[in-house]
Amino acid sequence: MPDPTDKRARPVRGAERAYAAKTVADAVVAEAEKEWEAHLGKRRMTQLREALTLLREITAPYACCVLVVATGAASRPAGPPAGAGVRWYG
Fold first, then answer.
1. Which of 4, 12, 23, 83 has CA 20 to 30 A from 39's CA?
2. 12: which residues sit within 8 A by CB, 6+ positions away?
3. What is the 3-state secondary structure (H, E, C) of the chain?
4. Number of other residues whose CB lies within 10 A of the CB of residue 56
5. Regarding predicted confidence, which is higher, 4 or 35?
6. Tens digits of per-residue pLDDT, 23-79?
7. Which of 3-7, 17-21, 24-28, 78-82 has the lowest mean pLDDT?
8. Residue 67's beta-bridge partner residues?
């Protein structure tokens, strides 16, 4: 359905299973990053993140878009908020 505040955008809503999978994936990523930082140290981990971010420009040029929760909330709770959607801006 069209976004009522921006005719260029179309709200997208994830399914319950998608939110559940994202919660699991976020935990796995956090654990891996914790292990890497323990091995590399804070400075090198920061450098790794910066290098990977720079490489994204050539490996995924459209990944620069920002995903915004339509409710305007700074962070999303574990499950989808009622009536929330997302919009891509690029």
1. 23
2. 85, 86, 87, 88
3. CCCCCCCCCCCECCCHHHHHHHHHHHHHHHHHHHHHHHHHCHHHHHHHHHHHHHHHHHHCHHHHCEEEECCCCCCCCCCCCCCCCEEEEC
4. 13
5. 35
6. 999 999 999 999 999 999 999 999 999 999 899 888 887 765 544 444 444 444 444
7. 78-82
8. 88
CA pair distance 4, 86, nearest whole angstrom: 13
Cβ 90 vs Cβ 11: under 8 Å: no
Phi, psi of 77 (to 5 degrees): -65, 175
Q: Give the chain's length.
A: 90
